[in-house]
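[Discussion] Sanity-checking designs against the backbone

I'm trying to build intuition for which residues belong where. Below is a C-alpha cell string of 293 positions. I'd appreciate it if someone posts a full sequence so I can compare it with mine line by line.
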C-alpha cells in the first residue's frame, strides 16, 4: 500500500509542478486571468462528478463554502502574483509554510493544542524563510510579502475546511471554490484582459487539469497510507518545480537558497510526523482535496 501511495504522491507532485511551471511561463498574463482559466479546467471535472454522484450544487454550509472560496481565490491570486517576482521553486517552498499559519489559527480559533516540540519545528521552517530573504538576492520584498500573504490565507482555508467537516462532500467544496474563482477571476481580469494566441489557449486551460490531477492523486495517496508516511512526500513538488525552474527558466539557486528551502521542508515534515496518526488519515485526505488553492 505504501509503494502505491508513493507512486500516487509522485504523480500528484508532477501535476502540481507542471501547473507551477505553466503559471510561471504565462507571466505576461494578469494573475486574475490565470485564476479564471485555472477554474475552467477544474470545473470540467467537478460539474460532471456532481451530476454523476447526484451531489447538491448548493451544498449545506453555504456561508462557509462561500468564505472558503473567497479565501482560496485570494490565496491563489497572491501566489500567481508572487511567481512574477520570485524563482518558482522558492515561491512554492515559501507557500508551503501555510501549515504554520493554520496551526496558529487552530490554536486560537478551534482551541486545538500545539505540542511544544511543534513550535521548534515551526522555528526551523521559519528560519528557512529568514535565510531565503537574507541571503538570496532573488527573493525581493514584494515577492516575499505576496507569498507570505498567500500562505496566510491558505492557512485560513484549512480552518474553514475543518469547520465544514463532513457536512459537505469534497467535490462540492472544490466546485464552490472553482465557481467563485471563475466569477471573481473573470470580473477582475477584465481591465487586464489579454487575448491568448495559439498554444496559450491550451496552456491556460491545462492549468485546471494539472491542478485536478494533483489534488486527486494526493487524496488517493493519503487514503492508502498513514498520513505521517504519505503527507511528507508532497514536498517532492518543490524538487520537481526547482528542476523545472533550472532547466526551463534558467533560474539559479545558491547554497543559501537551497539551505533555506531544505529547512522549510525539514521543519514542516517533522511537524507532520508529530501531529498525525492513523485516526486522522481520512480527515487529512478530505483536507488535501480541498486545501490546495
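Best answer:
Here's mine. Compare freely.
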Amino acid at each position: 500500500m505504501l509503494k502505491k501511495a508513493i507512486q500516487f504522491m509522485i504523480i500528484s507532485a508532477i501535476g502540481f509542478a507542471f501547473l507551477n511551471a505553466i503559471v510561471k511561463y504565462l507571466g505576461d498574463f494578469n494573475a486574475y486571468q490565470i485564476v479564471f482559466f485555472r477554474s475552467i479546467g477544474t470545473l470540467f471535472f467537478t460539474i460532471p462528478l456532481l451530476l454523476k454522484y447526484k451531489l447538491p450544487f448548493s451544498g449545506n454550509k453555504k456561508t462557509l463554502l462561500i468564505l472558503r472560496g473567497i479565501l482560496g481565490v485570494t490565496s491563489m491570486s497572491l501566489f500567481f502574483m508572487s511567481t512574477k517576482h520570485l524563482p518558482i521553486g522558492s515561491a512554492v517552498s515559501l507557500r508551503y509554510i501555510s501549515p504554520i499559519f493554520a496551526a496558529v489559527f487552530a490554536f486560537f480559533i478551534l482551541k486545538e493544542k500545539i505540542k511544544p516540540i511543534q513550535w521548534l519545528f515551526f522555528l526551523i521552517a521559519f528560519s528557512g524563510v529568514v535565510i531565503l530573504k537574507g541571503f538570496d538576492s532573488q527573493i525581493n520584498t514584494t515577492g516575499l510579502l505576496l507569498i507570505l500573504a498567500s500562505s496566510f490565507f491558505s492557512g485560513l482555508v484549512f480552518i474553514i475546511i475543518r469547520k465544514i467537516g463532513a457536512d459537505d462532500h469534497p467535490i462540492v467544496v472544490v466546485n464552490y471554490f472553482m465557481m467563485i474563482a471563475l466569477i471573481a477571476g473573470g470580473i477582475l481580469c477584465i481591465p487586464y484582459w489579454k487575448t491568448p494566441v495559439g498554444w496559450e489557449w491550451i496552456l491556460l486551460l491545462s492549468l485546471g487539469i494539472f491542478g485536478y490531477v494533483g489534488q486527486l492523486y494526493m487524496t488517493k495517496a493519503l487514503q492508502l497510507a498513514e498520513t505521517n508516511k504519505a503527507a511528507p512526500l508532497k514536498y517532492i513538488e518543490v524538487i520537481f518545480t526547482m528542476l523545472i525552474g533550472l532547466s526551463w527558466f534558467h533560474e539559479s539557486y545558491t547554497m543559501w537558497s537551497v539551505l533555506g528551502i531544505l529547512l522549510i521542508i525539514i521543519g514542516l515534515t517533522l511537524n507532520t510526523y508529530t501531529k498525525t496518526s492513523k485516526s486522522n488519515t481520512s480527515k487529512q485526505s478530505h483536507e488535501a482535496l480541498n486545501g490546495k488553492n
